[in-house]
């Protein structure tokens, strides 16, 4: 019902924008270098071949490898250790105002001539939160009791998530500001889309690999089954 409602809202609002929004024909549009799809892709390839762009793409494709396990696996491991999914979902509610305010604050520091400085400064702190999340997962079963988890446990989780969001948004806003700054205005949309796509890919592929590596890298013990390591799915089922 939730998905159906917002899907309907999305379709209605988008349709209204298409029908009611009129372009201002009095303004002379800026001349663009691209005329069609073929020209756009030809231009994209010429951009990618530039040494500075290649180096930057390599940087943003690999920069988030160190955060992949913390970002992708922490929540799943907390659920596995017994934290109710609905409680974790409720903890996301106080994060919403923070996620709205953070870009406004961080943008003041990324508006200068070197927006990537914020990116670099936030990186070691975000890496440290990977260790903190590992400690959180280790600590979770130790504070669990019959009635669930104490209030102070959820306070620690909420604080950890909030501080993590600061480092996450510092890097996110910085990279967006840099992409906007270096994009050629004549082909701004094409240029920014390329850089943002590579940036998104740089966050997605490490998370996928991290999730795939969870089982092979997890040490398991089998109770009541000798000579079974439970390292594979088949062995665990046996």
From TrEMBL:
Q: Which GO terms describe its cellular component?
A: membrane
UniProt superkingdom: Eukaryota
Q: Would the keyword Transmembrane helix turn up in this protein's UniProt record?
A: yes
Q: Name one GO molecular function term.
A: acetyl-CoA transmembrane transporter activity
Q: Which PANTHER family match?
A: ACETYL-COENZYME A TRANSPORTER 1, SOLUTE CARRIER FAMILY 33 ACETYL-COA TRANSPORTER -RELATED
User: How is the protein disposed in the membrane?
Assistant: Multi-pass membrane protein
A Pfam family name for this chain? Acatn
Q: Does the keyword Chloroplast apply?
A: no
- Protein name in the entry: ACATN protein
Q: Which InterPro entries match?
A: AcetylCoA_trans_1-like (IPR024371), AmpG_permease/AT-1 (IPR004752), MFS_trans_sf (IPR036259)
One biological process term from GO is: acetyl-CoA transmembrane transport
Q: Where is the protein found, in the record's own terms?
A: Membrane
- Ranges that cross the membrane: 6-22, 43-67, 87-106, 118-139, 151-175
Q: List the keywords (alphabetical).
A: Membrane, Transmembrane, Transmembrane helix
Source organism per entry reads Oreotrochilus melanogaster
């Amino acid at each position: 019902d939730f998905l159906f409602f917002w899907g309907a809202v999305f379709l209605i609002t988008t349709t209204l924008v298409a029908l009611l929004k009129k372009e201002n024909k009095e303004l002379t549009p800026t001349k663009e270098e691209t005329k069609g799809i073929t020209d756009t892709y030809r231009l994209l390839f010429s951009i990618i071949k530039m040494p500075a762009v290649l180096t930057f793409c390599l940087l943003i494709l690999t920069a988030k490898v160190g955060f992949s396990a913390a970002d992708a696996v922490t929540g799943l491991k907390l659920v596995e250790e017994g934290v109710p999914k609905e409680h974790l979902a409720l903890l996301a509610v106080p994060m919403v105002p923070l996620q709205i305010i953070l870009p406004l604050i961080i943008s003041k520091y990324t508006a200068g001539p070197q927006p990537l400085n914020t990116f670099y400064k936030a990186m070691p702190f975000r890496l440290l939160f990977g260790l903190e999340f590992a400690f959180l997962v280790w600590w979770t079963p130790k504070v669990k009791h019959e009635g669930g988890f104490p209030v102070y446990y959820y306070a620690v989780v909420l604080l950890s998530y909030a501080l993590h969001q600061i480092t996450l948004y510092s890097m996110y806003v910085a990279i967006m500001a840099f992409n906007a700054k270096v994009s050629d205005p004549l082909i701004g949309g094409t240029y920014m889309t390329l850089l943002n796509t590579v940036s998104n890919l740089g966050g997605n592929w490490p998370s996928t690999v991290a999730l795939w590596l969870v089982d092979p890298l997890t040490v398991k013990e089998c109770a009541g089954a000798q000579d079974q390591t439970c390292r594979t799915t088949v062995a665990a089922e046996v």
